[in-house]
Amino acid sequence: MVYLRDYKYFVKTYGCQANEYDSELIASILEKMGAQAVSSEQDADIVVFNTCAVRKNAENKFYGRLGALKKIKNEKKDMIVIVAGCLAQKDYLKISSIDHVDIVLGTHRISALPQILQEIKYSRRKVVDVDFTGRIEPDVPPRRLSKFSAYIPIMFGCDYYCTFCIVPFTRGKMQSRNKEDIIKEVLELDRQGYKEIIYIGQTVNAYGIDRKFEYDFADLLLETSNVIKNIKWIRFTSPYPTNFNDKQIEVISSLPQVAKHIHLPLQSGNNEVLKRMARRYTVEQFCDIVYKFRTKNKYIGLSTDIIVGFPGETEEQFEDTLEVVDKIRFDQAFMFAYSEREGTKASKYENSVPYRERLKRLYRLIELQNKITEEKNREYVGKVVDVLVEGQTDKNPNKWEGRTETNKIVVFEKPKDDISGSFVKLRIVASHTWGLEGELLTD
Ligand code: SF4
Q: 16, 41, 68, 175: which has the fewest Cβ within 10 Å?
């Protein structure tokens, strides 16, 4: 194996938790080869962009930063530039034609990185490896950025082909991991003193379906909660609404170790639009799932994703979305104006909604959701909540932040000691749309 002892590396991650985990794997591989992490491209000999293809915005940001890297690379001829992730998988021809890119690495090829680096170090030939025949299970533990919260992929890829989504084309077919490997990873994190794990997958609660396991997502949660000692919260994201069955709802609602927050992507509040999106549920089925969760636990935190201005969406259909949002009252929503992704079915749909109209709808939806979020957050004022402390806020060194079990951000005055990774009790004294303010009771 090539030895990178004098090398410094920098990884920039775009997009979702799956990418964050993959970046941790890439970092681990590079460190195992001797390289050391640095915090900017300028200081690095190896620069990795782990890209996202889901939204145009992330794509534009990546190309901008890659363009700026050219000048640095001109001054540092030996620098190795690696482009990995979903955009590398999707647009490998375009990316590999960019002069200062040395390696294009597909989403299934991370484990091949040592061999590729060896090849490139001796030949200085551009390498494009986007073979898509199967996800190779990680053979190194990831270099975890957090010492108390850890992502664990339990499945890769997606079989659902929603018409707006590029993910099945960039991450391949659904592949569930063996439960033995997952539990082994959990036990190691528990031994290391981690406080929270987050099971991730594109349709995380469909775990096992592809391999016809008799053991399903509910069984995995049950077994995990039985083996953990230090880990207090098990989170998961993102579930697919209709993969929730009664057993899963019961297990999630009743196990104290499963954090009481569900991210449940609605996407649209109109059945016609849902059909054109190829979502496999109706608004009524979606509301039924929400009802079942809330009947078991009325304080459960619910967040969602919504797209407005999908091709062909009429004003009335958009108003249906407003109505459903108003009825369900999510705690939080990630809201987007539809943006075409080349290669998806929806990008070929006619009747596109004019861009200005998409934005107008988006602002109306945001206005409604912000009002709901603010009202829901206000219900917390005066309560005492348990929070897992994440550390100092980005904006203010005198303020710290953490998250409740229901995934609310709580900001509080800087504590005397570094208590990041600890559970504390906070009394909520103020609420906002962005989250809560609290007073530390257990400093
Ligand atoms: S379920 Fe739909 S939106 Fe989610 S990753 Fe799969 S195709 Fe994309």
A: 68
